[in-house]
Amino acid sequence: MSFSITGKTAIVTGAANGVGLAIAKHFVDKGANVMFADKDEENLEAEVGRAREEGDNARYFAGDLRERLTQANLLSATIDAFDRVDILINASRQIAVSDPLDADADHVEAMMQQNMMTSLRMTQLIAKRMNKQAEADGNEEEEAGAIVNLSSIAASQTHPKLLGYSIAAAALDQLTRSMAVALAPDRIRVNSVAFGSVMSASLKDVLKDNRELRGEILECTPMSRIAKPSEVADAVQFLASPGAGFVTGQIITIDGGRTLLDPVTLPAH
Fold first, then answer.
1. Residue 215 burial by CB count (10 A; 0-12/13-18/19+): exposed, middle or buried?
2. pTM: predicted TM-score of the whole model, two decimal places
3. What domains lie within the chain, and their CATH numbers?
């Protein structure tokens, strides 16, 4: 069983920072050709510059991925750089605090657009390209592609202040299952990684200003720690690799056992 992604070409959205960046850098280190995609061009340029110091298998594309024209241009840039795309990581995500009783502040539309609709449109676009490549390759035994979505344990938890985010996460989980069934005949696998608290740069900043929050997170996590971004990246690599060749439509949870306790009073970060 091989977990190698060496020589594969991956698009990673949300790759300018946070978990998306950790996944993109991890894939570069593992020998994949990686297109880092995000709207933060300054950070993309800096991170890809560092990644390319070790090799020539990283590129970046900057743009608002909520726009379908931008998505099409991202695919074109990836084909120009690497000739094909084998893996799509939908890591473009955003968290916003909601006021569930205020239609102007519940952020449902914004979270659905950023976290679910962008993943849906990217999946539709890239799956068509994967199918085209598979037809050209002519090998009906080979996998045509792998798609991994980044979701959240907020999809199954209940916290009103994360109303928009949790609704979008739940929709993304159902998108994963539906697309897995739809694309299975095309030999394209679709899975998701749902995680709890991960020690990203943004969470570090939050914890600096809110020391009590760290204690609350550890209290509701049986493993009593916060996940490292590399632990999410490892799980994503597994789902994108041949080692997961018979795995599709699954939501892999990385939360240190947090959802086993089902605390309804604490947010998922």
1. exposed
2. 0.93
3. 9-261 (3.40.50.720)
